[in-house]
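Hey, sorry to bother you again with one of my protein questions. I've been staring at a protein lately and its backbone has me curious. I owe you a coffee for this, so here goes:
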Amino acid sequence: MPVSENTSGIDSPRAWLVVVAAFFTSAIAYGVSYAFGVFLKPLQATFGVSHATLSTLFSALSVLSYFLGPITGELSDKIGPRPVVASAAVLMGGGLLLSARVHSFPLLYLTFGVCIGAAVACSYIPSVAAVGEWFKVQRDMALGIAITGTGLGTLVGAPAAAKLIGRFGWRETLQVFGWISVIGLLACAALLLRPPVLKKVTGNVWEKVRTRPFALLYLGLGFRGVALYATIVFLPAFAMDLGVGHLAAAKLIGYLGVASIAGRFGLTALARRYGLMNTYIFSCGIMLAGCVTWVLSHGYAALVVFALAMGMGYGANAAMTPSVAASKFGIEGLGRLLGWLYTSFGVACMVGPPLAGVLIDVTHDYRYSAYVALVGGIVSLAAIVPLREVRPQMEAVAVD
């Protein structure tokens, strides 16, 4: 039977508090997880393990965070986002505080890999889905703002970790991050109220997952992930192979992060004027153009252009993806749907960088990482374009 709830909160000031909560939830989740690279050398010096072994710790975190998404999304749909995000506070805070006291590297797979990966899954999908369900008229703008928190976290987390490690050490830094995560995520959870919607039973999420539009969107996101992760892992090494200094090469990822924020705010603002799907396709086109620039690049300036284009296109694409999913499939069960959709990034983590790495090992040429990114950009755009013709489903929501 339909579940009736008060609909007066839709697009209200109270709904914007949910956006604020989702913004900072995303910032904390990805600020912590994407700062992992800063801890590489300190962890290696402490535990004496190889870089390859250390990288598997981040892979475990990333894959777990994406593949747990369907479960945490379904939990959020059933019991509301607040308790799920509150559990993220316990998992992330506890995991970081325990990791600071670990003296055996294998234990980090549990305290850091499992706990932080599960925490990201419990925080990102439920909070973003909640925003989608609290809005109707201004949903695209609200979701764009909420997801921009990931860009802020990426910009702030790594530099903050580097400064703290340099002054206090990696163990003390994890403790600081742990307490910030506990306090911050609990505060965000308090603001994540259940949406005041009128839900109707219109079929389960699995019926939507089995459709051709979902398959196209899944492919588009997955291959976008292939291009993005190949960039994050190999762009600095590619630059240094061209003779670029270590610091300048590292700054390319910073340029990507800055551009992603600009894309989330700048390009998504065009959606209202030119249409959501037109702008979404345009963002994929920008990423592809950037990948072409990378393939043809022979100097640092071209790599900066690539990083800016990749960041701009990726940021806008990421911000609009929940809106595209809501527009094509409706908002009922949005948390579960997004959870299944974002498993495409888990697949991308397992496919993109390893494939590029194998090609580089065989050819001894870092340019093959650019080729992998280019293929990802091409397939992503090809998968997304047909979605322009897919008619949106009726919203499963009634508004006064």
Notes: The chain has two domains: 13-191, 205-389. The domain at 13-191 is CATH 1.20.1250.20 (Growth Hormone; Chain: A;). Confidence is low (pLDDT under 50) at residues 1-7, 198-202, 394-400. The radius of gyration is 20 Å.
